## 1
Amino acid sequence: MHGEHLVIFSNPLGWGYGLMIPLGPPPRNDIIVDVMRWMKAQEPDYVSCIERADQRLAQEIRSDARFTVEAVPDHFDYVYRVQDLATLKGRKYHKKKNHLNRFRRHYSFEYRPVSDALIEDCIHVLKRWCDWKECDKNPFIRVEFEAVHEALLHVKPLELDGGVILIDDKVMAFTLGEMLNKNTAVIHAEKADPEVPELFVVINQQFCEHQYSGARYINREQDLGQSGLRKAKHSYHPDHMVEKYRICLKETRS
């Protein structure tokens, strides 16, 4: 705690400190300066910044000459209308609907909510995805694997929603999400057997239909600048984007 504010920072993989958005009432300018200077003292060569800051914080401190504020499109969240993803109606979703119909013609499948009995099967799917992505060669993918693995092991304490697709009683895809507020849900993880590409369309559509039909929007997070992921996210025709910013203390760039 820093006065009335909760300050959370991390040092992922020992690569340098990162600061999350301080939680508490404005103004937060001086608190951010204090914490960033402390982080700079711990890691003199590291540029101390807040990544993925929201628009509210960016507007709050944009006029403060001590900071640089930069929009980072790679971190913008993609937000869709739930009914669009659940029904896949209309010409713009024609290809997605064809993928779904082709899957239904070739496979007899079942959707189920995630339960304790299905967690180990979901972990098996996650491990297959990890092997496919060669995550042992990529520390960023490895960290994602470990985060999703932890989430699967703590679905109930984290109060996450989840769904799976079974083919011949075998879990082939799973997803995890939660409600951000009364109108918007967020998808944290979505993994599927790489040998059945249509599974990503199916788990997305089924989860929206069964779990979040009462919500208006669904946030499917950012593309991290990956061209393939960006193409896939745009193919679902987002309703709007949630902008994210990088906020740095100017003196830490010296």
## 2
Amino acid sequence: MRVIRRDRVPQCGPIGGIYTGLKSARTDFVLFLACDMPFVSAELIRFLFQQGQLYERAVFVRSAGGAGFPLILRRAHLKAVTEQIEKTQLSLKSLAKRLRARIIQPRLGLPGQLRNINTPADWEEARTFFSPLAS
């Protein structure tokens, strides 16, 4: 496990962190989680790895914009990520399209796990949503 604190290629958004993670990876599959998504379940992570191994391609979770976090890439995708940065095509959606990624929708039985927490208001809303967890 690695926490990326500083991207090797700054000011590229999430794709800069992805580049940094792939550049330092020691495994074939790399899981990328966003630090503002604290409710991602172990079940979803296992499912992502299964899908990545089964289909031998990148796997992104469906978000409002199309492809989003969490996601699984192979270390071999570093070249494509590098080229996306060089072309300033920095969106996860464009990366997923280039990689012909599998985009999955989490099971409905796991509501809220993709919730972003970026502000105190987001935190309060999440505490309300997950009231059994808030105590």
